[in-house]
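Database export, one record per block. Field names are fixed; values are copied verbatim from the stored entry.
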Amino acid sequence: MSGLAVLLVFVALVVLAGLIVVGIYNALVSKRIRANEAWSQIDVQLKRRYDLIPNLVETVKGYAAHERQTLEGVIQARNAAIAVPAGNIAQQAQAENVLTGALRQIFALSEAYPNLKANDNFRQLQEELASTENRIAFARQYYNDSVGTFNTACQVFPSNIMANMFNFKVMDFFKTEEAAERQAPQVKF
């Protein structure tokens, strides 16, 4: 083999290795972007949920004013969830779990107050909140799927080498803590 042929083979191998590196890097970036986009969808649905809660609380106040502790608990849980720093998935999940529990208490109040249960505004808010809870559940699933794909790419060979070289870090899943919190609130009429 001549020196030129050896040089061409070497250049071809270097170019091939470079293309592989670029391909793996771009795949990791794409997967990370997909996971971040999925998180933004959760964020959109959570904001919608936060916007519905004050209306729900105001409606309940008219019928169950002496249930002040329950109403204040919902508002405190909402405010705590809103105050979670952006990007802190674990803390956000914990705050959302507390908020879901507080909302369940409001829905339980409707059983004790038939007039509240019959109120059209309350029923509409319950339906919107139930729909939003379903959207949040779907967005969480999509986010966790995206994070799983990204984390897998960060941990399998050969992309794990690239992930370590370019400081790609595995992402946290959005988890609920208790089995009861894994379900959307039940809306009963």
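Remark 1: The chain is about 80% helix and 0% strand.
Remark 2: The helical segments are 3-63, 68-82, 89-112, 114-118, 120-155, 159-165.
End of record.
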